[in-house]
Design goal:
single chain; alpha/beta; TIM Barrel; Lyase, Ornithine Decarboxylase, Chain A, domain 1; 8-stranded mixed sheet; 7-stranded parallel sheet; about 25% strand; elongated; binds pyridoxal-5'-phosphate; Ala_racemase/Decarboxylase_C; Ala_racemase_C; EC 5.1.1.1; alanine racemase activity
């Protein structure tokens, strides 16, 4: 195999969904956020597995993602799009039977004019200042909007991954103020909000990252493992430099493995220096610049040349790798490249 092997554990994703579902009361529905190709893991495999686990509410970003997901899942589940009803979305929302989560007054007008009987939801901005009607806008249009029977009213927490942030309580209080007594189901929590406790759960929770094994839910079952084949191994002399710009100099005679994976595969340049990969049980440092397609690994301390090295697994999580690049597990996951041989554990048409 010439490229890395990315193993995606669909059983772990289903187990994570069930565990997150069990954290809220039976009256609270647990959806699944599968935007951006299920955080890069392949929505055509992930969403049907979640459906089999019992999930009936799926969240995507764009109307197009919603329509593709509809083809995958068939007519039964509800599919909600966070970008709402943008100019040009009307036909796609209709054909895909996708619920736009309206996020501005303009969108509300567009929706009620162009698809008056098509279900819609509403996003309220409770302090993140990203998407959603501001409190003053909501005050102005709530009556009209509620008369049109929205199927879900939601907001999004900006700091749910920091349980002690005062922003969580402030957003909760404002969401309660804005939605007290309304008929439609309400939703505030993604993964981080589920962990904050039942006050944040309302009628629907919308976990994403927790399904895929990432923080802030530290107890998630690990979902991905990634192995890169070794292309070639060779010795370098003391003082030889490795990779672009010669940023690593051999302190002594060293043995280097060049492995098949680089920044085009989601292994960020910023991972080196600092990241280790595993040759069996032995950590080996990445040395020199990560290139587009390859990177160098110091294997001087190994007894034999490895055939492959491991970048991700249960012990080397996306968050651990992300920390070396100054980013978060979400970005590592959604950057995993298209070149990998993707294998799915728990896929009914594959072992
Ligand atoms: C991405 C997203 C989610 C899921 O968030 P996670 O932190 O991945 O659980 C939920 N709601 C909205 C509005 C989102 O954008």
């Amino acid at each position: 195999m010439a490229t890395g092997t990315l193993l995606i554990d669909l059983e772990a994703i289903a187990a994570n969904w069930r565990a997150l579902d069990a954290m809220s009361s039976p009256d609270c529905e647990t959806g699944a956020c599968v935007k951006a190709d299920a955080y890069g893991l392949g929505v055509a495999k992930v969403a049907p597995r979640l459906f089999r686990a019992g999930c009936r509410a799926f969240f995507v970003a764009t109307a197009e993602e919603g329509m593709e997901l509809r083809r995958v899942l068939g007519p039964e589940p509800r599919i909600y799009a966070f970008y709402g009803h943008m100019a040009g979305d009307t036909a796609t929302l209709k054909r895909g039977d996708v619920v736009p989560m309206i996020c501005s007054v303009d969108q509300l007008a567009r929706h009620l004019e162009s698809l008056p009987r098509h279900p819609f939801g509403l996003q309220l901005d409770t302090g993140m200042n990203r998407l959603g009607l501001k409190p003053a806008e909501w005050a102005a249009v709530a009556e009209l909007a509620l008369r049109a029977d929205p199927v879900l009213v939601m907001s999004h927490l900006a700091s749910a991954d920091e349980p002690d942030s005062p922003q969580n309580l402030a957003q909760l209080a404002l969401f309660n103020d804005l939605t007290e007594g309304i008929d439609p189901p309400r939703s505030l929590a993604a993964t981080g909000g589920i962990l904050l406790g039942e006050d944040w759960h309302f009628d629907m929770v919308r976990p994403g990252i927790g399904l895929y094994g990432g923080l802030p839910w530290a107890e998630a079952d690990p979902v991905v493992s990634l192995d890169l084949p070794v292309i070639t191994c060779f010795d370098v002399e003391t003082g030889d430099k490795v990779g672009y710009n010669g940023t690593w100099t051999a302190p002594e005679t060293s043995r280097i493995a060049t492995v098949a994976g680089g920044y085009a595969d989601g292994l960020f340049r910023a991972l080196s220096p600092g990241m280790d990969v595993m040759a069996g049980p032995v950590p080996c440092p990445v040395v020199g610049r990560v290139s587009m397609d390859v990177m160098g690994v110091d294997i001087s301390h190994l007894d034999a040349d490895p055939e492959s090295v491991r970048v991700l697994d249960a012990h080397r999580t996306v968050d651990a790798v992300a920390a070396h690049a100054g980013t978060i597990g979400y970005e590592v996951l959604t950057s995993l490249g298209r070149r990998y041989d993707r294998r799915y554990r728990g896929d009914t048409d594959q072992v």
